[in-house]
Design goal:
The complex is a heterodimer of chains A (479) and B (1501). Chain A has 479 residues and is α/β, with parallel strands linked by helices. Helices cover 37% and strands 15% of the residues of chain A. The chains are: A alpha/beta (479), B alpha/beta (1501).
């Protein structure tokens, strides 16, 4: 055993320093500073090199975390990078946006036993950023390209991960995406201060350089039908993600200045990328000077409140029906938001939007938590006669996302979906009911984490490869 | 008996049992006239001596069947003249030849056939027969088994027709004739025909009676005409089982006490030697083959070869040196040059027969007694004024008049003493070796030391980058292998350490690619022979590797026509390998060990076999098997297969002796892989891929300052150390006898592969065959060359990785279990067990299910026995406080006590405060106290605060290995418990130094039963094939409990490969032990317990059906207390405070007794549920019911070959139960104490003076121990004043004199004592001095035996004379003064003071980390003998220590009247200059009274 490890006994936990609140509120840049080399290796050396690494157990991608921590501690960053990227197509993204406190770091053995977790996420980010800086991240160079091709619908994390894995195997890949930029939620959903956009762009560029074809502004069902794509390619992957905002049907819902979260975030991100965004420029989607109320307790809600702060909102409140302990989102994000001045109104549920023409205030019920339900979470119950008012110039609904109606959208009624609208697949092969059509990511599992999308993308790539190899075999047998 | 034979056949047929698994050991000795005069006295002494070693033998369950005894004497001429004349012949003065023969008793036609063969061969060979003589015997003295198997015992009397054929020539002719007869009989399958002796010189009487009954059985021996110049006698203690008259000793040339660990290798190499064997002395050399007859024991085989050498002209002492040589290669300082040369030459002729060996031998010219290279068996001798030499296992076997004794001595390592009979002259060790060295000097010049020619320099790599990676991938290497295993081998020059047990699937059950060597499991020693300490006793070990033709061992003059090349290590670096090939040039040939994608593995193997044959026939001497040609189109044949296949093939073709098999392979990486290659026959190994992998890391600058050459050297050094360790585990010291010995067992490799390529390897459970292996190779090869990753697979064999090998302890399951025990939720527990059951197969039991057909249907759960009955059958393993934190250890004990289960102290002592019940009613006292090799904290108090004592022979995770508790873990608290110094490293030796043999174990059990008559004694063994016979031996040694541990038990720290590749599943060991115990009517007398990865109620039920009554759950109990399998126990950084001594980390401990109670309650509840479902009311009903189990095939298709039937074989217990109904304490014979205590007690009560002097004999063992027990009980622990009770003895004390003797007792002995004096001494004083009549000079003679003061914790010993081997080994507090000792003195000592007024033997102070020693070194020999590793030495400098020493010497004089001490005291000012003070390095700065006033002590070397 390398004596360089297991230093948690002597070395305390340290995350990369966060920028001062006052400072970071002023821009959209990432709030965590870079690790310096020495710190990264020192913090890596705290890893206990467990016989059962719970960090990996709870990592959707099964990243070999203890192993690249050891390599980092030993200053072997290039190998650390190689190992890290062998299970993850975009480690620098996961390092930035994964809710590590619920996954690897939250389950870290030394965290569980009260020593403070190894700061896995920031080290993961450090490793890959260093790799980019040093030019270790290289496009795929194929010796032999295969003559089979795959069409991938959606340039989000699932689609990109699948594309890269299949390209490595030599397949021709075309990605069809309805937005003007590739990246899906990574580019337009997640705010800059969590994930700066150059990080996403260099990834998509890398894939382009690897010979993957991107067709942007392409809507399946409009620009081509699914059937047409199926004929064109040997296999299709549906990785559209879920974009339909979940609604709450309340009196006053039609008032102005009540927006779905994605509209708000996309506008902000587009601005960040230097685009002209009319609805923002005219002030509609700009929170500046406004009393903003965000409804919801997930990561998207956190993105909205913190974006609002940066847009210089007058006040930002977050309404959530349960309490802090029962929030679905990352506790670390909540802490960041609180630091930045967001006011959380726990145990509250809006009953009515009020205003003339545009929203002016919300009527809110107080909630108490009842008995746990089947999932183990305590059920919110409205406390009678407890309502109160919350002033608002702008309301952002961050209540989650549902799938769009794909069969209609794609003009393909044969495609089977579940009662929730997610695409039905065979869980072993990830194939839909249509031969050679696969699906992965949020459109299968419902709105979830980026890391799960990457995982699904990688899994489906394996499955598609199997499918294509068998297909080849059959054809050659026939021939 | 019929039932026995039926059972035996059943077990044999199912590969459960074979004769080769039997072990034996015993008492042995000789009496010889030193003036060459025949006398009746010699024979009578021999018979008398046998009566005095009965306790070294064993008795069958019937109470009368001994394991065998016998005597070898000269043919009494007068006696047989009369017998000849009775047959009507006229005696014509020619040499009388007598054959002592066993025939099948009840088969008259077979008897006739035997007689016909004997008669016709004798006649054909020019002998004439006087006639047959029925040997008069008295079968009434036999036990039932012995009687049932008793042969027809007859003698054939004959003479040579050639009156000039005399002495040696006559013997040779008789020998060749005997071999013809034996081969004839074998050819016509005449079983039970055996020739004890056939000779003109001597005759052997032996059989299965108790030793003392020999003369009552063989009435001849009572005849006064039976006279002889020598008598060799032997008493056997066998682990078995199958009674065999043939295997009783002495054999024709030797009688042997001990065990040959290299037996398999020796047997194989003997076949190779046979190919070259030739001699004009014999009519036809083929008559002599096979030299080693089939189915013989190790001792019998050694005798076969010994006899052959004698007969062909090598005198007995030379044969001894060839077969059982001294350790010499690392002893240049102490051995005379000409002796070294003699040994070097003999080393090039034969492979040593290595293992514990006390031998008495004769070639009719010499009679010798001799010891093995390690001195692992006691041999004491006395020479008397009336011209007799006595040598034997114990002193005092024959009562001699002290006045007549000229000298008393012992044989140290490798030593011989002998008498040349005709000349009537006695030869001491040095004289014998001087004598031989002169004669064989000239052979030495032909030995070429290759190390000077093949040096490590300018090391280069061969492959790099992608090419390297794909090769690594193909050979199954992972990142884990490189990081965790390979790297430390170069960086630290040591194998990596790991902890906790193996919870991954057996190689055959894995769905991952596992290299072939993963299927091989190392053999290890337990009970019947000791492992060796390859670290501290390295001097006796050697990796010397010999090349060149093996010569004709029968003819020394032509033996070394050609040069013999020798290397110091079998591992060659890349540059060495290149030089090697160049050096041998045309004499070497490379055999490509890869095959085309389109080919087949089977064809490929056939091809390389043929290639090898052709090469050898063309005169090539060096075969080089290489898999370097591997490519995307070429697949490697597993190198292990190549070596095994070629080695076996060449032996069959009688060509093996002409070549060496050298290997260049990418497969070799960890020490186990090298051990397997060499173990199946490779001479050298060049692990090119390991070096290339090292180079890759070197280029990354991962080795700091080391040059690449240094990295290579360090890696090779660690492989060498690993090889020594692996050899030492099974007690083998020299590589040449390990090579080709196939000392492995496989689990799940098909019997065909084993039979074809690895004959000799044990394979009880057949499994994957060539087809399966080929499939796996093709799979991994394809992956390797298709993979697009730039890195290797992650691994996960040693530590869980999600994409790696399956582990049974998975994150989710650990959490589930912890939440279950934390919230007392049986439902959560059920989810946990379901999770376990849903895993892919990992253990053999995962392929087993209940045989529904046999079941009667479910019953109500209320009908099943109450949970309390089940709970008390559980144990929590034996983990020490030291491995575990105080909190964890006590919590576990409290929890176990609450359920009335068994918690065990482990090997680390226990805080006496825990012996008291707490106010809450809980108690943290471990019900079981362990006694292991280091004897930490084993005092009379410790041993009396338990109702069970567990002797740990081996540990599942690392059988055959010792341990080390590094200084940083030895806190104040730990040091106190272990009687040592905080911060100073503690060593647990690999063997118990008082158990080198089965009769030694019996002795320890006896000692423990004396010190605590109320405790049951358990013996912990590790599962291996052959554990059944060992268990039978242990049961015969009167153990009450036998624990069979599976290979997957845990550990606090051990080399990674030990966790993985040693021992077998408990399913195999347990069933075998149960079967063999049942077969031998022993099962119902012992409780069987098992452990090793037991996790659920189903595991318990299966273990019960396989024969276990009690069950250990250790790791899972730790998990219940918060362990999360971090596997860093060895680092002292356990984050949850379970396995650490760091106070900060210990605060994190969250375990509670309740959690422990909950765990066991859950398991017991599940057991009850299963019992109800199966329709049984109690566990007892299913114990041993393997008929209720069946194999169910599961998952992976290559599992279908797996044949688990050997596990299900049931021996019929007859009227006995299949379990131990009343766990009671097996009775051992009384010792002297039982006789004298009642009178003493009366006197003590009346405060009378006790002045009696008691006669003591060597059969009075452990004297003083039971009295100590009584004193302890009567007066309490340590409450008595010193010398409160003094007892006087006179005579030769038996073993373990004063063992565990308590404070307040003083034992005074006039005479001498055997081994283990003051073992575990707990405060008593022992004085041993010469008897009043004796004329001996005390410091020139031996007065006490081997392993004295082993594990003593306090007290004093004064002995006026020398001691044997390993004096004061692991002493941690006693003070002693003696007058000289043999090898390994003060080994592993951690406390106390030793004064030695005389020379010490070799390797003094090895592993000594505490205490102090003073040596009177008037001849300046000390520096040659010392092991400087852990100690420093200097003259006695400070007044404090000068006075201290003077006091002790003075006390010694007061106690013993020794002249030497008197002389020293009288002239102390001068004599002090002759003293050397020895202090452990780690202690120097921890002493209250410094040993020097000079600043800084220089290290002397």
């Amino acid at each position: 055993m390398s004596e360089k490890m297991l230093k948690f006994v002597d070395i305390g936990q340290q995350t990369p320093p966060k920028r001062e609140v006052e400072n970071r509120k002023k821009d959209f840049n990432e709030i965590y500073k870079e690790f310096i080399n020495k710190k990264a290796s020192e913090q890596s050396s705290r890893c206990s090199q467990c016989g059962v690494p719970f960090c990996q157990v709870h990592c959707p991608l099964s990243n070999n975390i203890p192993d690249w921590l050891k390599l980092t501690a030993e200053g072997r960053l290039k190998e650390a990078y190689e190992l890290s990227q062998s299970t993850n197509n975009m480690p620098e993204v996961c390092g930035r946006i994964c809710p590590q406190d619920r996954l690897c770091e939250g389950n870290c053995v030394i965290e569980q036993s009260g020593h403070g977790t190894v700061t896995i996420g920031s080290i993961e980010k450090y490793i890959t950023d260093t790799a980019w800086e040093n030019g270790w991240v290289k496009p795929i160079e194929l010796k032999n390209e295969r003559n089979q091709s795959i069409g991938i619908i959606g340039a989000g994390p699932a689609g990109l991960a699948a594309a890269e894995e299949l390209r490595k195997q030599g397949y021709k890949i075309t990605i069809y995406d309805r937005y003007d930029r590739a990246g899906g939620l990574l580019i337009y959903g997640i705010p800059n201060f969590k994930l700066e956009k150059f990080v996403v762009e260099r990834r998509t560029k890398l894939l382009e350089d690897s010979g993957i074809e991107f067709i942007q502004n392409f809507e399946v069902g409009k620009d081509a039908s699914l059937d047409q794509l199926r004929k064109k390619h040997d296999a299709i992957l549906i990785a559209t993600g879920v974009y339909k905002a979940r609604e709450i049907d309340l009196p006053g819902n039609d008032l102005n200045n009540i927006f779905p979260a994605m509209d708000f975030l996309t506008a902000s991100n587009k601005k960040g990328l230097g685009d002209k965004v009319e609805l923002f420029d005219n002030g509609t989607l700009n929170a500046e000077g406004k009393d903003v109320v965000v409804i919801g307790g997930g990561d998207t809600a956190m993105d909205c409140v913190r974006t609002s702060i940066r847009q210089k909102a007058k006040s930002v409140k977050c309404l959530y029906r349960r309490d802090k302990e029962n929030m679905p989102g990352s506790a670390r994000e909540v802490a960041n938001a609180e630091e930045e001045g967001v006011e959380f109104v726990w145990l509250s549920s809006p009953k009515e939007f009020k205003g003339t023409n545009k929203i002016e205030k919300l009527i809110v019920d107080k909630i108490k938590l009842g008995e746990p339900d089947e999932t183990g979470r305590r059920k919110p119950e409205i406390q009678s006669n407890s309502d109160f008012e919350v002033k608002a110039d702008m309301v952002i609904k961050a209540l989650g996302f549902d799938p769009e109606d794909l069969p209609t959208l794609f003009d393909c009624n044969d495609l089977q979906v579940s009662k929730w609208g997610t695409v039905k697949i065979d869980f072993d092969t990830m194939e839909t009911n249509l031969k050679g059509v696969f699906a992965a990511g949020d459109i299968v599992r419902g709105a979830s984490l980026v890391v799960w999308a990457i995982k699904d993308g990688r899994d489906v790539a394996k499955s598609i490869k199997n499918y294509l190899e068998n297909k080849n075999l059959k054809q050659s047998k026939v021939a | 008996m019929k039932k026995y034979n039926k059972n035996l056949d059943l077990l044999k047929k199912n590969h459960v049992y074979s004769e080769e698994m039997e072990h034996d050991a015993c008492g042995v000795g000789l009496i010889a006239s030193t003036e060459g005069k025949k006398s009746r006295k010699v024979v009578e002494y021999g018979i008398e001596a046998l009566k005095a070693v009965w306790h070294r033998g064993a008795v069958d369950a019937d109470g009368k069947t001994g394991d065998g005894a016998g005597i070898h004497v000269e043919i009494p001429k007068d006696f047989f003249i009369e017998k000849i004349e009775v047959t009507g012949h006229f005696y014509d003065n020619s040499e009388i030849c007598v054959g002592m023969i066993f025939l099948p008793r009840n088969d008259y036609s077979a008897q006739e056939s035997c007689k016909t063969i004997v008669e016709s061969e004798l006649t054909k060979n020019n002998f004439s027969i006087y006639g047959w003589r029925q040997v008069p015997v008295n079968p009434k003295v036999l036990g039932e088994k012995a009687f049932q198997t008793m042969p027809e015992i007859i003698q054939v009397l004959f003479k040579s027709n050639d009156p000039d054929l005399l002495n040696k020539e006559l013997e040779r002719k008789i020998y060749e004739t005997r071999r013809k007869i034996e081969n004839q009989a074998f050819k016509v399958s005449l079983n039970n025909f055996y020739i004890c002796s056939l000779s003109s010189k001597s005759i052997i009487y032996k059989g299965m009676f108790l030793a003392e009954a020999i003369a009552d059985f063989y009435l001849d021996l009572k005849d006064e005409r039976f006279v002889s110049r020598y008598a060799i006698f032997h008493q056997r203690f066998s682990t078995n089982t199958a009674p065999s008259w043939n295997l009783a000793q002495p054999f024709r040339a030797i009688a042997h006490n001990g065990e040959i660990n290299t037996f398999r290798g020796n047997k194989n190499w003997m076949k190779v030697h046979e190919q070259e064997m030739n001699s004009p002395l014999f009519e036809n050399i083929e008559n002599l083959k096979p030299v080693i007859q089939q189915g013989t024991s190790d001792s019998a085989a050694l005798d076969n070869v010994f006899e052959l050498l004698n007969i062909s002209g090598q005198p007995a002492p030379l044969a001894k040196l060839m077969l059982v040589p001294d350790a010499w290669s690392k002893k240049s300082k102490i051995l005379p040059k000409d002796h070294q040369q003699l040994f070097n030459f003999l080393n090039s002729t034969m492979e040593p027969w290595d293992g514990p060996a006390a031998i008495a031998a004769t070639d009719n010219e010499w009679v010798i007694a001799a010891n093995d290279r390690n001195g692992l068996r006691p041999l004491r001798y006395a020479i008397t004024k009336d011209k007799l030499l006595f040598a034997g296992s114990e002193t005092g076997m024959i009562e001699l008049n002290e006045k007549k004794i000229l000298s008393k001595g012992r044989l140290g390592p490798g030593e011989i003493i002998g008498v040349r009979i005709e000349k009537g002259k006695i030869f001491t060790n040095d004289k014998i070796k001087d004598f031989l060295a002169k004669e064989y000097k000239h052979f030495n010049s032909q030995i070429v030391d290759l190390d000077e020619k093949l040096t490590i320099s300018n090391e280069k790599n061969i492959f790099s980058g992608d090419d390297l990676r794909r090769r690594q991938y193909t050979f199954g290497m992972s990142l884990e292998d490189l990081e965790l295993i390979l790297h430390p081998m170069a960086e630290d020059a040591k194998e990596a350490t790991g902890s906790m047990g193996d919870d991954t699937p057996l190689a055959v059950l894995s769905d991952k690619y596992r290299p072939l060597y993963h299927f091989f499991r190392q053999n290890f020693s337990q009970v019947t022979n000791p492992p060796i300490d390859s670290l501290r006793e390295n001097k006796v070990m050697s990796l010397k590797t010999r090349f060149g033709n093996l010569g004709n061992i029968l003819d020394f003059d032509t033996l070394t026509k050609e040069n013999i090349y020798v290397l110091n290590s079998p591992i060659l670096s890349n540059s060495q390998f290149e030089k090697f090939i160049n050096f041998f040039g045309k004499n070497s040939i490379i055999i490509d060990c890869t095959f085309d994608e389109s080919g087949s593995l089977f064809d490929a193997i056939e091809k390389i076999q043929k290639d090898a044959e052709i090469a050898v026939r063309q005169g090539v001497t060096q075969l080089i098997l290489s898999d370097k040609n591997l490519s995307d189109k070429k697949l490697p044949i597993p190198m292990l297969l190549c070596v095994g296949a070629i080695n076996t093939f060449l032996i069959q073709k009688k060509l093996r002796g002409y070549v060496s098999i050298n290997v260049q392979s990418g497969e070799a990486l960890d020490t186990h892989s090298f051990a397997t290659l060499i173990g199946v026959g490779a001479t050298t190994v060049n692990p090119y891929l390991a070096f290339d992998s090292l180079y890759q890391r070197f280029e990354k600058k991962l080795f700091g300052q080391f040059s690449f050459d240094e990295c290579v050297e360090r890696y090779i050094k660690s492989v060498n150390a690993g090889l020594l360790k692996i050899m030492s585990k099974m007690g083998i010291s020299v590589l040449s006898s390990y090579r080709g010995g196939c000392n492995f067992e496989t689990v799940g490799l098909s019997r065909t592969i084993v039979a074809d390529y690895f004959p000799g390897v044990v394979s009880k459970i057949s499994g994957i065959g060539l087809t399966g292996i080929e499939k796996k190779i093709r799979g991994i090869h394809k992956e390797a060359f298709e993979s697009t990753d730039t890195i290797l697979p992650i691994g996960g064999i040693y530590r869980y990785r999600k994409n790696g090998e399956t582990h049974q302890y998975q994150g989710k399951l650990i959490h589930l279990l912890q939440s279950a025990v934390g919230s007392n939720s049986y439902e959560a527990y059920k989810k946990y067990v379901q999770g376990i059951y849903n895993l892919p197969p990992i253990n053999l039991r995962d392929l087993i299910d209940f045989r529904k057909k046999k079941l009667t249907g479910p019953i109500e759960i209320s009908e099943v026995e109450p949970i309390e009955n089940i709970l008390k059958r559980f144990g929590s393993g034996s983990m020490s406080h030291g491995a575990l934190s105080k909190e964890a250890h006590e919590t576990l004990a409290i929890g176990m006590n609450r359920i009335k289960g068994a918690s065990c102290s482990g090997e680390g002592g226990e805080d006496e405060a825990r012996f008291k019940v707490m106010e809450s009613g809980d108690t943290a006292n471990s019900r079981v106290k362990q006694i292991a090799s280091a004897r930490f904290g084993v005092t009379i108090n410790y041993l009396n605060n338990c109702n069970e004592i567990e002797i740990k022979i081996a540990q599942g995770a690392k059988p055959g290995e010792g341990g080390q508790l590094p200084g940083f873990k030895v806190t104040e608290e730990i040091a106190k418990l272990r009687h040592s110094t905080p911060g100073v490293t503690l060593i647990s030796p690999p063997p118990h130094h008082d158990i080198y043999s089965i009769e030694d174990l019996a002795q320890l059990i006896y000692d423990l039963k004396q010190v605590n008559p109320k405790a049951r004694i358990g013996v912990k063994l590790v599962a291996s094939s052959g554990v059944g016979t060992i268990a039978a031996g242990v049961a015969k040694a009167k153990a009450d409990i036998i624990l069979i541990s599976g290979h997957n038990g845990g550990t606090g720290a051990t080399p990674q490969t030990s966790v993985k590749y040693v021992g077998i599943p408990w399913e195999m060991g347990l069933t075998e032990a149960n079967q063999v115990l049942t077969l031998n009517n022993l099962r119902h007398k012992v409780t069987l317990r098992t452990d090793g990865g037991i996790k659920t109620g189903r595991d318990v039920v299966i273990a019960a059906m396989m024969g276990a009554e009690e069950y250990g759950v250790a790791t899972t109990a730790l998990v219940a207390m918060g362990c999360i399998m971090v596997r860093q126990c060895h680092s002292n950084t356990c984050p949850v405070g379970v396995c650490t001594q760091d106070e900060k980390l210990r605060e994190k401990f969250t375990g509670t007794p309740d959690k422990v109670v909950n765990l066991f309650t859950f398991i017991a509840t599940e057991v009850r549920e299963i019992l109800a479902k199966l329709g049984f009311k109690s566990l007892n009903e299913i114990i041993g019911r393997t008929d209720l189990l069946m194999q169910v095939s599961k998952a992976s298709p290559n599992l279908d070959d797996l044949d688990l039937n050997p596990l299900f074989v049931q021996a019929d217990p007859g009227e006995n139960k299949r379990y131990c109904e009343n766990p009671e304490i097996n009775i051992v014979p009384d010792t002297l104490d039982q006789k004298i205590w009642p009178e003493i007690e009366k006197k003590l009560d009346r405060s009378e003076k006790i002045s009696d002097e008691y006669e003591i004999k060597n059969t009075n063992r452990a004297v003083g121990t039971r009295i100590s027990y009584h004193l302890y009980k009567k007066y309490g622990n340590e409450k008595l004043e010193n010398n409160f009770l003094t007892l006087n003895f006179k005579g030769s004390a038996g073993q373990s004199f004063g063992a565990f003797a308590t404070k307040g007792l003083k034992l005074v002995l006039k005479g001498d004592a055997n081994d283990y004096v003051g073992k575990g001494l707990s405060g008593a004083t022992i004085s041993i001095k010469l008897s009043d009549e004796s004329n001996l000079i005390s410091n020139e003679n031996t007065i006490i035996g081997n392993t004295v003061l082993y594990g003593a914790t306090s007290g004093n010993l004064f002995a006026a004379g020398q001691a044997g081997e390993r004096f004061a080994v692991r002493n941690s507090g006693a003070t002693a003064v003696i007058e000289g000792c043999d090898s390994n003195g003060c080994e592993y000592m951690t406390g106390g003071t030793i004064v030695i007024l005389g020379e010490v033997g070799d390797n003094f102070g090895a592993g000594m980390t505490g205490g102090m020693a003073f040596i009177y070194d008037s001849n300046n020999q000390f520096e040659k003998k010392v092991n400087p590793e852990s100690i420093i030495w200097q003259n006695v400098e400070t007044d404090y220590w000068i006075n201290y020493l003077k006091n002790l010497v003075n006390q010694h004089f007061q106690e013993t009247n020794s002249n030497l001490s008197k002389k020293i005291i009288e002239n102390f000012e001068e004599e002090i200059k002759n003293f050397i003070q020895i202090c452990p390095k780690e202690m120097v700065n921890k002493l209250v009274n410094p040993i020097t006033l000079k600043p800084g002590i220089k290290e002397v070397s």
